[in-house]
């Protein structure tokens, strides 16, 4: 078991542009040239992956999705993923740095439903607009390669259009009755992502949002069908699984890192939500490697 998984920056891939804040490459080229890229790893950047054709499996934070044509995958910095793709799989990987997007578009990244959420699917089927997305990715790649004046500005415009078009399609999947709660849910998820180890009660999150705990639970139930405490616990479980899978730390150490002073309580907590102990989970992961 390794101490950690690889964490890639954009500069890992864009060797000829050491200071670049964006990168784009055909998926099949990336797989062919970058040994081990299909194994578990994370990034310091945002990722947008377009599957034009092919099949296989894509695992993101311990959830596995079947790969199919006309899919978009969305990953945020820090998420762990791996894949097994059929040899005929084709598409594009587009990477961009947070500050590259934020410099012109502010906090818009935090508002997309497919980014910064462990509850919403990190993928979107765009078969209904296959030609549009296929053409747009092709134009973006042409812009990326051609080194024309104002290349970064134009390339960012392509990223923006891709994400806005994806967001429109994605929003159609959200329950209409709950759409007015979405901004509040995103606020809770952002607080949760930054504080899930230190802040462990729904009351404290609700106070930061200036709502009652009951109303925060109502928001989560309406949009996701889960309580606010369930979202907190699921985030803790994801982090526990990451540490159990990708580090050699003991169960006691992991429990302590996640704010559990009592190892036995951490074990009971983990088993409650997964059905197995942390040791059994770690052994099952090792057996599959």
Please summarize what this structure is:
The chain is of the alpha+beta class and 289 residues long. It is built from twelve helices and ten strands.
List key phrases describing it.
globular; 17% strand; 289 residues; alpha+beta; five-stranded mixed β-sheet; 48% helix; 12 helices
Strand arrangement, major sheet = 1-3-8-5-6
Segments where pLDDT lies below 50 for 5+ residues? none
Strand residue content? 15-25%
Tell me how many strands there are.
Answer: 10
N-to-C series of helices and strands: EHEHEEEEEEEHEHHHHHHHHH
Radius of gyration of CA atoms, rounded to a whole number: 20 Å
Biggest β-sheet description = 5 strands, mixed
How much is the average pLDDT?
A: 91
Distance between the termini: 10 Å
Number of helices: 12
Principal-axes shape call:
globular
Q: How does the helix and strand content classify structurally? A: alpha+beta
Helix proportion: 40-55%
What would you say this structure looks like, in words?
The chain is of the alpha+beta class and 289 residues long. The chain has helices at residues 10-13, 27-33, 98-105, 130-146, 151-171, 182-195, 202-209, 213-224, 228-246, 251-257, 263-274, 278-288, and strands spanning 7-8, 22-26, 41-43, 46-53, 56-60, 63-67, 71-75, 80-85, 90-96, 123-125. The strands form 2 sheets. A 5-stranded mixed sheet has the order 1-3-8-5-6. A 5-stranded antiparallel sheet has the order 2-9-4-7-10. Strand 5 and strand 6 form a beta hairpin. The model has no long low-confidence stretch (mean pLDDT 91).
């Amino acid at each position: 078991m390794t101490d950690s998984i690889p964490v890639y920056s954009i500069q890992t891939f864009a060797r000829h542009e050491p200071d670049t804040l964006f990168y784009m490459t055909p998926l099949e080229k990336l797989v062919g040239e970058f040994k081990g890229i299909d194994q578990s790893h994370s990034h310091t950047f945002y990722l947008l992956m377009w599957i034009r054709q092919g099949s296989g499996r894509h695992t993101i934070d311990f959830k596995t999705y079947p790969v199919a044509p006309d899919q978009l995958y969305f990953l945020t910095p820090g998420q762990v993923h791996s894949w097994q793709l059929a040899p005929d799989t084709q598409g594009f990987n587009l990477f961009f740095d947070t500050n590259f997007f934020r410099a012109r578009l502010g906090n818009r990244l935090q508002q997309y439903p497919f980014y910064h959420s462990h509850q919403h699917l990190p993928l979107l089927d765009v078969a209904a607009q296959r030609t549009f997305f296929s053409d747009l990715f092709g134009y973006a790649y042409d812009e990326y390669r051609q080194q024309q004046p104002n290349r970064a500005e134009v390339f960012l415009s392509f990223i923006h259009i891709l994400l806005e078009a994806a967001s429109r399609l994605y929003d159609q999947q959200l329950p209409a009755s709950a759409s007015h709660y979405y901004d509040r849910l995103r606020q809770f998820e952002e607080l949760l992502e930054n504080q899930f180890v230190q802040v462990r009660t729904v009351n404290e999150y609700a106070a930061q949002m200036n709502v009652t705990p009951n109303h925060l639970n109502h928001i989560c139930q309406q949009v996701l069908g889960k309580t606010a405490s369930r979202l907190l616990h699921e985030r803790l479980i994801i982090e526990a699984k990451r540490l159990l899978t990708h580090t050699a730390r003991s169960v006691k150490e992991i429990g302590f890192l996640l704010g559990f002073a009592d190892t036995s309580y951490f074990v009971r907590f983990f088993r409650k939500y997964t059905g197995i102990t942390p040791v059994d989970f770690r052994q099952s992961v090792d057996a599959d490697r």
